[in-house]
Amino acid sequence: MAEVIELTERDPLVVHTAPVVKMDDEQFFRFCRLNPDLRIERTAQGDLIIMPPAGASSGRGNAKLTFLFEAWASRDGTGQIFDSSTGFNLPNGATRSPDVSWVRNECLDDLDDEEWEKFLPLCPDFVLELRSPSDSLRAVKQKMEDYMQNGARLGWLLDAPRKQVHVYRPNQPPQVLEDPAKLSGGSVLKGFVLVLDQVWGAMERKRQKSD
Asked: What pairing do the DSSP bridges indicate for beta strands 126-131 and 154-159?
């Protein structure tokens, strides 16, 4: 009988630096470049958040989401999709990396070449976070609040373990949906519809059936 491994929620590693060390955006970018094997985010208070690599389930879910959003964005043509490795320097001083994000072209057109090569100095219009069984729900919710307080127009938190979706909109409490079949991008992601079974299915382990 195969061993069953229980996954429990865990908070990411947080390294407190202030007031001893305070990095500006350029210094933080260089710090991340010096540590390419680490996934690092930063809070508005300057604390460094060290994220563990994604497990296979989350990796498959993220890959499916990026594919679906990129296919829509290529047809829509009004903005660009970014994956989970992209950093955004938010107006409050935090640096966050959503699992999926979308930014209008007019916002990107204002960037110069140097800004394009570094963490983007803006908050995406749309953000998505995919929570795995081992991710702290509290920590993921804090990221979503950061996005909404800094200019995001729509946010989705996909809670895979519970098959819940938390929908975030500006100046509104999050709306929690229990195992919805679909999500509509509304006026932000015009014409986009996410079928949740495509995401949950991608995250499930597929076994080869024996004859």
From this structure: parallel
For the chain, how many residues are written? 211
42 vs 10, 28, 119, 157, 166, CA distance in Å? 18, 9, 12, 19, 23
Our count of domains for the chain comes to 1
Which CATH number do you get for residue 123?
3.90.1570.10
Give the three-state DSSP class for 157.
Answer: strand
- Quick check: helix, strand or coil at residue 100? strand
Q: The domain containing residue 165 runs over which residues?
A: 54-203
Show pLDDT as tens, one digit a residue, over the chain (211 residues): 333 333 455 677 888 887 778 899 999 999 999 999 889 999 999 999 988 778 888 899 999 999 999 999 999 999 999 999 999 999 999 999 999 999 999 999 999 999 999 999 999 999 999 998 778 899 899 999 999 999 999 999 999 999 999 999 999 999 999 999 999 999 999 999 999 999 999 998 775 454 4
Q: Per 3-state DSSP, what percentage of the chain is helix, strand, and coil (rounded to 5)?
A: 30, 25, 45
Q: Which of 44, 41, 55 is nearest to 12 (CA)?
A: 41
At 163, phi and psi to the nearest 5?
55, 45
The answer for residues whose C-beta is within 8 angstroms of residue 56's C-beta and 6 or more apart is 205
